[in-house]
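Propose amino acids for all 195 sites.
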């Protein structure tokens, strides 16, 4: 990225990143869009080898569709989970999920599985991104849900999923922001130096 965005705050960066994401997705060939994120790249598969439970999310609007990774992760023997928003204060947990299972509506247009046996503990959390940078900083929606989930499950591998157009030069990081371990876009897997 070559723009100087250093003077922008997080809300302004979110707006810019959403505009870029929308414009990018609008120009994608429909076949390319359908095929994006259907395969787990080998380096990511190796990083997930020792994980058992992987939390995905159901992509909303033009978000990168994490749910498309589900069938291949399931074929690798992984238990899948989706987030369940518990309240408007940033709390959520994760419920086991089968890709064809019925989903219940949740707040903010989200959906989640039936509670079944209750929440599960993820070994890896794949989170949606509004924006990201090469320092592995994540710009989320601003509600703090994934910040709290990362803090609640500190040993879980933190993976961001985004379209490449959402990359920014720099994302401001607050003291509570935990860097991502990996970022997957439709064109590459970015690994943090500590990953």
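Proposal:
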């Amino acid at each position: 990225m070559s723009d100087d965005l250093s003077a922008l705050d997080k809300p302004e960066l979110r707006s810019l990143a959403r505009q870029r994401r929308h414009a990018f997705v609008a120009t994608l060939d429909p076949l390319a869009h359908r095929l994006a994120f259907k395969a787990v790249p080998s380096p990511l598969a190796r990083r997930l080898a020792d994980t058992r439970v992987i939390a995905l999310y159901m992509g909303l609007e033009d978000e990168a569709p994490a749910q498309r990774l589900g069938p291949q992760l399931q074929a690798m023997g992984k238990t899948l989970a989706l987030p369940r928003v518990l309240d408007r204060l940033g709390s959520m947990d994760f419920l086991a999920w089968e890709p064809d299972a019925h989903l219940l509506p949740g707040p903010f247009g989200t959906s989640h599985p039936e509670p079944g046996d209750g929440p599960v503990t993820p070994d890896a959390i794949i989170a949606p991104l509004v924006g990201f940078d090469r320092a592995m900083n994540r710009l989320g929606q601003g509600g703090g849900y994934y910040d709290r989930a990362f803090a609640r499950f500190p040993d879980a591998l933190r993976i961001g999923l985004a379209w490449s157009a959402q990359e920014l030069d720099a994302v401001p990081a607050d003291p509570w922001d935990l860097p991502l371990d990996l970022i997957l876009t439709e064109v590459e897997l970015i690994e943090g130096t500590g990953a």
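The helical segments are 10-27, 30-35, 42-47, 70-75, 145-152. The chain has a mean pLDDT of 90.
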